[in-house]
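Please fill in the sequence for the structure shown.

STRUCTURE ENCODING:
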């Protein structure tokens, strides 16, 4: 290994976010470099702090390409992340880099680097690029240092992933196999349409499924433009938008409003979000979509308030009725229109399958994705903080609509505001999963978890060290440690759906795994408490 190690820091496209998060990034970088120098090695940043922009992040693909032209191709390279990052900024340089790559994140829920690193890792996996990965609270613990020394010695960092075993290692009940075969066959025969609003504009290369991977399953993309969604919002009448808001008010949903649109949620922002909800349903119906994804954070962020209120409502079976503009037909009546946040097509395909399986089983069909945001031990159990920007269906929350409050999105990410669907996920048994791409093949990791209730003060503490405007889920994953999850999980996102009880969740997991397998997806069963016996 070359003597000099280079460090890069990838960031956001949004200047406000990069400026706000720079202090945390700088602190993480200094700790990582200190650890490497303590091992007798030289390390330096491959790109300087920009005094004019007031941060030191790579903030565009153009910038990333410029930086990589200055890095020797075979030099060891550390990608240090303490923030959410847009992987397309550095992916072109990383996939062509010939030296060893180490991705590192600080164990913090603040901005967060864990989410950014998991996204980047999944992008590298899909691209077939070799890399090692580590995470740490302060970069002095034995686990981090052991892995760092392994990498510095020229090896690839190894982690325990024994929690993930192939589906073939288990006996799947005949009824589950039959259900999976039936539903997969129906999907191939009847076809399904995935509505994709502006594919890939958030840089999540790992979240784009090539058409040829889905076509044999009977799933086809309808590529839609977010400009069309914005235009359709203009055709929604004020009275239609007011009717959506009145429906939510009547259900007891609260809106934390103020007068300063720059920092507070306003009634006008909510009004525009209600129009987006109506417009999304009408476009989906026009194109016959079975599942849709809006990629708000680029493009739409400069035009309209956040999409999260609309997204959460779409994922709920019980929601404000919307009628077709022509014949007055109620659209998707009595059922969700599954929405995949940030146009994560892997989550979209998962949501489609979940909807079919849960509906067949007679379970509440609501499903959504969360960020694998953070986690800490609480009274002897490791409790994950699953948290996403507001697209959670109210059915998943304690109290439903009456337990939900809409708060303004953080200005550094959402300049034009808009509200979330904030609440605490109800205790219960869930199935979690993630579809991802590796070596041009679709895989799915699937497991079980329980959602627990924490004291309100502990929930508030976790909200304050992450993003307090967003809905939270307190998850205990059965038979999967913190480090196993970080080592194996191929995304910043995790798909979740509730079952009536533990036995029902095990039944749903078996049927879903069987449907995945029948669709040609390679399945890993993760952890314990899944109800499947060994072969």
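FILLED IN BY: designer on duty
SEQUENCE:
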């Amino acid at each position: 290994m070359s003597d000099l190690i280079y460090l890069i820091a990838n960031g956001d496209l949004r200047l406000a976010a990069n400026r706000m998060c720079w202090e945390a990034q700088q602190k993480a970088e200094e700790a990582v470099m200190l650890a490497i120098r303590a091992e007798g090695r030289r390390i330096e940043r491959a790109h300087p702090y920009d005094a004019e922009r007031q941060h030191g992040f790579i903030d565009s693909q153009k910038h990333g390409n410029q930086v990589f032209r200055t890095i020797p191709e075979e030099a060891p390279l550390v990608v240090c992340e303490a923030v959410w990052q847009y992987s397309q900024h550095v992916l072109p340089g990383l996939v062509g880099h010939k030296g060893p790559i180490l991705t590192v994140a600080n164990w913090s829920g603040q901005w967060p680097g864990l989410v950014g690193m998991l996204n980047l890792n999944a992008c590298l996996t899909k691209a077939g690029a070799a890399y090692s990965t580590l995470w740490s609270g302060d970069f002095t613990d034995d686990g981090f240092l052991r892995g760092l020394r392994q990498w510095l010695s020229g090896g690839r960092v190894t982690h325990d992933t024994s929690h993930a075993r192939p589906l073939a290692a288990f006996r799947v009940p005949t009824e589950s196999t039959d259900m999976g075969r039936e539903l997969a066959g129906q999907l191939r025969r009847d076809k399904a349409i995935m509505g994709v609003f502006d594919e890939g504009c958030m840089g999540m290369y790992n979240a784009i499924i090539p058409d040829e991977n889905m076509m044999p399953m009977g799933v086809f993309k309808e590529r839609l433009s977010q400009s069309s969604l914005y235009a359709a919002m203009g055709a929604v009448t004020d009275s239609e938008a007011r009717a959506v808001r009145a429906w939510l008010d009547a259900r007891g949903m609260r809106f934390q409003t103020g007068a300063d649109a720059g920092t507070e949620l306003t009634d006008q922002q909510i009004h525009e979000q209600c129009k987006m909800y109506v417009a999304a349903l009408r476009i989906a119906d026009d194109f016959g979509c079975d599942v849709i994804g809006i990629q708000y954070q680029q493009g739409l962020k400069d035009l309209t308030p956040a999409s999260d209120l609309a997204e959460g409502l779409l994922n709920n079976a019980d929601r404000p009725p919307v009628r077709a503009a022509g014949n007055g037909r109620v659209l998707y009546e009595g059922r969700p229109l599954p929405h995949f946040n940030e146009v994560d097509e892997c989550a979209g395909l998962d949501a489609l399958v979940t909807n079919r399986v849960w509906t067949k089983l007679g379970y509440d069909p609501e499903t959504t994705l969360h960020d694998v945001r953070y986690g800490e031990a609480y009274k002897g159990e490791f409790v994950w903080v699953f948290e996403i920007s507001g697209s959670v269906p109210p059915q998943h929350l304690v109290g439903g609509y009456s337990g939900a409050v809409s708060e303004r999105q953080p200005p550094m990410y959402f300049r034009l505001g808009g509200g979330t669907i904030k609440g605490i996920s109800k205790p219960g048994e869930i199935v979690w999963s993630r579809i991802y791409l590796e070596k041009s093949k679709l895989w799915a990791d699937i497991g079980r978890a329980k959602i627990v209730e924490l004291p309100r003060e502990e929930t508030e503490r976790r909200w304050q060290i992450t993003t307090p405007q967003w809905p939270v889920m307190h998850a205990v994953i059965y038979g999967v440690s913190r480090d196993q999850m970080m080592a194996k999980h191929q995304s910043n996102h995790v798909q979740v759906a509730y079952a009536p009880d533990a036995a029902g969740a095990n039944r749903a997991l078996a049927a879903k795994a069987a449907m995945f397998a029948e669709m040609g997806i390679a399945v890993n069963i993760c952890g314990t408490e899944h109800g499947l016996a060994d072969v």
